[in-house]
Specification:
The structure is a homodimer.
Chain A (H helix, E strand, L loop, with lengths): L5 E7 L23 H13 L4 E5 L13 H6 L12 H6 L5 E7 L5 H14 L4 E6 L4 H4 L10 H21 L6 E4 L4 E3 L9 E2 L4 E2 L14 E4 L4 H10 L2 E4 L4 H17 L8 E10 L3 H12 L4 H12 L19 H13 L7 H7 L8 E4 L1 H15 L3 E5 L5 H16 L12 H6 L42
Helix pairs in contact in A: 4-6, 7-8, 8-13, 10-12, 13-14
Amino acid sequence: MKSRIILNAFDMNCPTHQAAGTWRHPDNQAWRYKDLEYWTDLAKLLERGYFDSLFMADVVGVYDNYRGSAEVSLADADQVPVNDPAIQVSAMAAVTKHLGFGVTCSLTYEKPYLLARRYSTLDHLTKGRVAWNVVTSYLYSAAINLGLDKPVPHDERYNLADEFLDVTYKLWEGSWEDDAVIRDRERGIFTDGAKVHPIRHKGQYYSVPGIHLCEPSPQRTPVIFQAGASGRGREFAAKHAEGIFIQPGTVEQAREVTDDLAKRAMQFGRTRDKFKIFTLLTVITAETDEAAQKKYEGYLSYSSGEGMLSLFSGWTGVDFSKYDPDQPLEAVNNDNSIRALLELLVKIDPNRRWTPRDIIKHRSIGGLGPVLVGGPKKIADELERWVDEGGIDGFNLAYAITPGTFEDFIEHVVPELQRRGRVRTAYEGNTLRENLLDSDSPRVDDTHPAARYRGAYTGAESVADSTGPSPFASLIAAE
Amino acid sequence: MKSRIILNAFDMNCPTHQAAGTWRHPDNQAWRYKDLEYWTDLAKLLERGYFDSLFMADVVGVYDNYRGSAEVSLADADQVPVNDPAIQVSAMAAVTKHLGFGVTCSLTYEKPYLLARRYSTLDHLTKGRVAWNVVTSYLYSAAINLGLDKPVPHDERYNLADEFLDVTYKLWEGSWEDDAVIRDRERGIFTDGAKVHPIRHKGQYYSVPGIHLCEPSPQRTPVIFQAGASGRGREFAAKHAEGIFIQPGTVEQAREVTDDLAKRAMQFGRTRDKFKIFTLLTVITAETDEAAQKKYEGYLSYSSGEGMLSLFSGWTGVDFSKYDPDQPLEAVNNDNSIRALLELLVKIDPNRRWTPRDIIKHRSIGGLGPVLVGGPKKIADELERWVDEGGIDGFNLAYAITPGTFEDFIEHVVPELQRRGRVRTAYEGNTLRENLLDSDSPRVDDTHPAARYRGAYTGAESVADSTGPSPFASLIAAE
C-alpha cells in the first residue's frame, strides 16, 4: 500500500516569508497578515484541501547582517515586521474542525512554566489541534534585545532545550492525573488534589517545584515539531519530534537524511512510524505545465535580489555583500556557514559553480528548498517520487504568493493526488496527533520521552498531602 | 449632562473567578472556559449589551496558603486550573466589531521585547480593541515556579514596572514612524528603514537596543489598565493607567479613592478625563426585587465557605485557617494584610465585627467588591448613585454564574440605564481607546507618559544609517 502524503502549509505572521519581493505581486495577500480574515480564510482553504496543518514559522529578531543593517530586510519586508504566531490560532480554530496548527516558539527566551500553560491553553481551545515547533534561537538581534549579551552557544542551546522539554513534559503529562478533574457537584470537588502533583523539578537551568496550572488537555503534550539541520539538531529531533522538517536539495539527499533520522531515533527506542518527516518545498502549479511555467516566471519578475540575499545572510549569518557577486562561493572557504550553504546549493544543482549572483537568480522563489513547477500530473509524479524514493512522509509547502500558491495546489494537485490514493479524502482523527500519525490515541506514544512522565507521580507527593486541619469542617459545603 | 456609565465584564480563563462554589450551579457555564464557543458566545452577548470591554483577569500561580496547600483551591476550582488569558481573544474579535478586550499580563515574568510584540499583534488582529491590564505579581507560588526564590519586593516591583512600561512605550510609540510602512510596489520598498529607529534602551533592569518587531498598530500602545490598591500602586495607576480598577466597599470610599487618584494624576499633568475609574461590583438582577433576591439566595446555596476563605487567603497572603472561625479579625492585629482587609470589610459593613465565619457568610458572592441585588429600577438607581456620588465612571462586573449574571444584567439593567441616557446605544469609535475615553484618536493623549516617545526618534539614528554599500546595485529590483 502506498503511504499517505501529508500536507502542511508553511506561513509566518509577516508580509514575506521565503520569497523576497513577491509582496509586490498584485495577487499576493501576505501583507494582510494583520487581518484576522486573512488567517480565517486561509485556515478554511487549507481544511478544504485536506492539509494536516498550518505551520507558523517565527523569528524574534530581524535579519540585519546583510550590508550591516536591517535596511534591506525592511525594504523587502523579509520576515519583518513580524507578529506573534500564536495569537490568531483561536480565530482559525473557530472556523475549522480538523486543521492542525503548528506554532513556533523559541524556548531560549521563555519560561517553561508559562510556555507550558500557553500550549495547554492552545490545545484546550483547539480541542487538541496544536503542535509546538520547538526552536532554539540563532539571531544575534534577538539575543541582545532579550537580555543576553550574545546568543547562547549552539550546543548549550540544545542542552538547555532538553531540560526545558523535560520540565514541560513533567507538567503536561505527570502533574495532573487523567481523572484529577472530576467536577463532582454533589461532593463539591472540582479537582481532586490527591491526583495533582508538584513536579519538584530542579535542574541545571530551571527550577519548577509546583503543579501545572492547567488541567489535562486533549493531547496533553502538544505534537512536537522540530527542524534541526546540524548533528546535534538531528539528535534532538530524533529524540523529541513527531514532525520533523528538513530542507534537502534533492530526493537523494532526503533519503540520506531520513535514513539518518530513522537510525538516530532507533537509539532512543523510537520506530520510524512514530514521527513524520516533511521536506520544505515550493510548488508552482496551474492547469498545464506551460501555464505553471508562465506563472513561475511571473513570480520571478517580482522577486527581489537583495531581499533574497538578506534572507540568506540572516539564515547563514554571513554578510553576502562582502563578497564579489560573481565569485564562486567555494572560493570563500573560510566560513562554516558558507560551506554548509554551499553543500546545500550544490545538491540542488551540482553543475553550477554557485555565486552570490546565482543565489539571486535561482533561489529567489523557494528559499532553501526545491521549487517544483508544472501541471497536476508532473507535480504529482514528482511529489510521489520525493515520498517513495526520498523516504519522507510529506511536504511543508512554502508560498510564492499567498493564498494563491495554496489555492493553486489545492485546485490542481490535491485532486490528482487523491485520485492516486495519496492524499486523504477525510480526516479520521479528532486531534492533530491522531491525524498526523494515524494514531488511535491523542496522546504521545509510549516511546516518546514525554511518556515517561505519564502517571509517573501517581501515588507520590500530591497537593493533598500537606493540607492542614480545617477549622471550618462544618462549612466545607455552603452554610 | 449626566455622564455615560461604562460597563466592563470581569472574567478569567478558569472555572471559578470570584464566587467560590458556584461552579456547582447547574446554569453556571464557567467550567466551559476550555471551549472557544463559551468565549465567542460571551463576546457576542457583551457586544449586544453595549459593554465597552471584557476584562480578563489572570494569575500565574495557585492559591496555596489556606491550610498550607492548594487542596481547597483545587477542590473548589478557585482560579485553578487557569489558562492563558490571551489565546481566545482573536476568536472573540472575529465575531465582534466593537467590544474591547482587556488582557492581564504580569510583567514580573515577561521580557518587554516579546510582550510588546504580543500586544501589538493583539492590537493589529483586533483592529485596535485591546487593553493591557498591567499586573505585578504577588503570589509566592508563581515566583518560585518562574525562576525566582521569592516574589520581587513590592516597591521594587513598581520600579521595575515603571522601567518595563518605558521600554514598551519606546517600542510602541517611537521605534516606527507613522509613515514608515509605505508598501511602495513601484520602488520595491515595503518599509522605509530611515523611519525605523532602534530604541537603545539601557536601564537598571532591561537592555533593549533594537527596533520594535511590529509595524504600528491602530492604537500603538494598547489601552493601559491597572488595579493598584496601595499608595505606590495608586501612584503607578495615576501615572500610566487609562482604565483604573478599584475595590471600594462603599460609595463614600469610592469618592475618597477617585478624588485621591485625580489628585495624584494631576501631579503627572493628567486631567480626570484622561482615565476612567471602575469599581468591582456583582449585580444579581431579575424582573423584580423579589425575584432577584430569590436568585441571589439560590446562588448562595451553592457557595463554598472554605473556597471563599481560600480565595481571601490568596488575596491577603494570610492563612485564615489559623484563626478561630469566630474570633473578630480586629483581634488579629499582628498582620498588615489582615488590617487592610479589615478596613475594607468594615467599610462594606461597619456594624459588623468581622470574623472568618462572617467572610464565608457574607462575602461568598462578590469577593472583595459590593453585591447589589434587585430589579432593574433598584439596580439602576444604585449604579447611578455609585457613579454620581462616588466619582467613578463605570463598573467592572463580576459574575455569580456565567454567562447568566451577564445575561440578566443585559436583559434587565442595560435597557433601564439606556432609557435614563446613561448607557450607550451605539459604539461611536473604532478602537477601544476611542470608545472608552470618548476620544477622537485611537492613540494615547499628549499627557500620557507613552506620548513622550511619539516621534521622539524622528531624525535620530535609524536603521538606514549604518547600511553599507551594495555590490548588487543593479539587482535591487529583480534581475
